[in-house]
Amino acid sequence: MDTIYALASARGKAGVAVVRISGPLAFWAVHNLTGDVPAPRRTALRVLRDVAGEVLDEALVICFKKGASFTGEESAELQLHGSIAIVNAVLRTLSEMEGLRIAEAGEFTRRALENERLDLAQVEGLADLIEAETEAQRRQALKVFSGVLGDKVERWREALVRAAALIEATIDFADEEVPLDVSPEVLELIGTVMLDLESEARGATMAERIRDGFEVAIVGPPNAGKSTLLNALAGRDAAITSEVAGTTRDVIEVRMELGGLPVTLLDTAGLRETEDAVEAIGIERARERAKYADLRVILLADKDAAPEIEPEEGDLLVLSKDDDGSARGKWLSVSGKTGQGIDVMVAQISATLTERASSASSAIRERHRVAIRDALLSLESARNEVLLGADRTELAAEELRTAIHALNCLVGRVDVENILGEIFSSFCIGK
Ligand SMILES: Nc1nc2c(ncn2[C@@H]2O[C@H](COP(=O)(O)OP(=O)(O)OP(=O)(O)O)[C@@H](O)[C@H]2O)c(=O)[nH]1
Ligand SMILES: [K+]
Ligand SMILES: [Mg+2]
After folding, report:
1. Ligand 1 atom having least distance to the Cα of 230
2. What residues does GTP bind to (predicted)?
3. How would CATH label the architecture of 148-210+365-412?
């Protein structure tokens, strides 16, 4: 096993730069640099020198013993003064040591996975944590990183292994006519896990929204002021506005943070009957995107105008062009021109989305959703086989094994090389 090293903090000038070393020669490398190996997990101030004895920097050095580090290997962290020249000199000195090489992207985390310091879901949580842009994303990634999903999977697995063992016991004793009927306990075990998995599957969609963003569509008749409102929310002229009805044709997307949640805001073509072929395509797109959006802001300049779209639960009906707030009251009213009412509307959108996000599960990726769905399908079949009677026990046991396999994939207990490549591609060097 090579000993690897890399700059773990961002490149460039900074207060402190952190260089990580991991592998069997980590302490040896520290000794080469400092003439000493400080006590593990203690910060020690040391002078670092190159092979010729030239001083490179004075740094804080922390050593971690094998089995008690992020990677699980013997490792060390050097906290250097954050100058590009110092970092380069230290990295060069490390590169000149026999048996050391620069780490590949994500290699420290890969070793942590290989040494079972993290499970696969935690690695994904870590990748998301690094990518997190909003508060909700940070909290969710941290939840996954802490191993919540892995703990749940372990519980489900134990229950299913017990169910399979009960069934297999009856197969072994089939000839001896064991009178014991295990099916009530087996059905109970399967049923409990299925309930958990179903709730996890429901929360998974919300978790994906927190990760990838909610879609909020602004819809309504032409000239309602949709594009003006989008621009006000975005703080820039993302969409063309004009007094001509039918100005917006394409769906315009702006990513932003609303109340701590990642949101993609959509501006859409004004909805009406039209002879104009191009406008008609725009309206078709508007309806399509609005249908799949998580929330619709239905904007009307006139309280009595037809909204041209069927509102759903959670959708906001908003009166536009209320520049001075005089129409405020029963209706939510805003002005994209003066900004009147926008804070109240944003608070309402964020409250609705936050409410939905609170049901998010720790299964946050498409891969998790698929594994949970597969496990559920197998458990459904297993339950049916058990209900069909004693001569179907081998089939029931097989279905249980398939379900356990799907759950194992979730936390990476089985061959996951192909998934790994995809996950680690998002990591930077030094992680
Ligand atoms: N006074 C006032 N005028 C507004 C407000 N919002 C929009 N307008 C005006 O209303 C007209 C239409 O605005 P747009 O933002 O283009 O309306 P739209 O709903 O995007 O229109 P389409 O894209 O054609 O469907 C423009 O002349 C805007 O200046 C507002 O809050 N107050
Ligand atoms: K317009
Ligand atoms: Mg528009």
Report:
1. 15
2. 223-228, 242-248, 267-270
3. Up-down Bundle (1.20)
Query: Is 192 labeled as ligand-binding?
Result: no
- C-alpha span between 329 and 350 (Å, rounded): 20
Whole-number Å distance, alpha carbon 238 to ligand 3 midpoint, is 11
**Distance (Å) from CA 228 to ligand 2 centroid:** 9
Residues with Cβ–ion distance below 5 A, ligand 3: 226-227, 247-248
Q: Is there a binding annotation on residue 304?
A: no
CA 228 / ligand 1 centre spacing (Å): 5
How far apart CA 415 and CA 397 sit, in angstroms, is 22
Report every protein residue that has its C-beta within 5 angstroms of ion ligand 2. Answer: 223, 247
- Euclidean distance between CA atoms 221 and 77, whole angstroms: 60
Rounded Cα distance between 20 and 431, Å, is: 9
The fold adopted by the segment(s) 3-114 is: Gyrase A; domain 2 (3.30.1360)
pLDDT tens by residue, the chain, 431 residues? 899 999 998 887 778 999 999 999 999 999 999 999 999 999 999 999 999 999 999 999 999 999 999 999 999 999 999 898 999 999 999 999 999 999 988 889 889 988 989 888 888 888 888 888 888 888 888 888 888 888 899 899 999 988 988 887 776 665 555 446 778 999 999 999 999 999 888 888 788 888 889 999 999 999 999 999 999 999 999 999 999 999 999 999 999 988 788 999 999 999 999 999 999 999 999 999 999 999 999 999 998 888 889 888 889 999 999 999 998 887 899 999 999 999 999 999 999 998 888 777 777 777 888 889 999 999 999 999 998 877 788 899 899 999 998 998 887 665 445 556 656 666 676 77
Ligand found nearest the CA of 225? 1
Alpha-carbon gap, residue 349 to 215, rounded angstroms: 11
Q: Ligand 1 pocket: which residues have CB below 6 Å?
A: 222-228, 241-243, 245-248, 269-270, 320-321, 323, 335-337
Domain definitions of the chain by residue range: 3-114, 148-210+365-412, 220-357
Query: From ligand 2's centre to the CA of 225, what distance in Å?
Result: 7
Q: Say if residue 244 carries a ligand binding annotation.
A: yes
Closest C-alpha residue for ligand 1 atom 4: 321
The Cα–Cα gap between 228 and 97 comes to 62
Instruction: Work out which ligand 1 atom sits closest to the CA atom of 338.
Output: 31
Please tell me the distance between residue 132's alpha carbon and the centre of ligand 1 in angstroms: 35
Q: 411: part of which helix (H) or strand (E)?
A: helix 393-411
Burial class (CB in 10 A: 0-12, 13-18, 19+), 263: buried
State the fold for domain 220-357.
Rossmann fold (3.40.50)
